[in-house]
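Now for my pick.
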Amino acid sequence: MDYGKGFYCRICGYFDKEEPPWGEDGETPNHEMCVCCGIEFGLEDIGGLEHIISIREHWLTKMKGKWQSSFFGPPEDWDLEQQLKQIPKEFQGPDDLKIYAQLKAKKSR
């Protein structure tokens, strides 16, 4: 199956083939919470690119890009950098990976 942009979180790039955050059509939010970044689909990930980027920057800088679900842990092979690359192109920010690299550098100190 060809998974379209509706299967990825617009904030963190988390992929969910069971319950696509934005439906198979990429336009119908399911209003669930993202297990990774904690936003509600169709509420916090709308309002234009600047808003989406600011929510992502807040999650990466203030919340340290931490997995948000207390019920479901991250996959064993979770790689946040790879996940950020999955954000649909029209919702990517120019500095997403630079912010992640800064976060990673701080963690390694």
Remarks:
- The mean pLDDT is 92.
- Helices lie at 49-61, 80-84, 96-107.
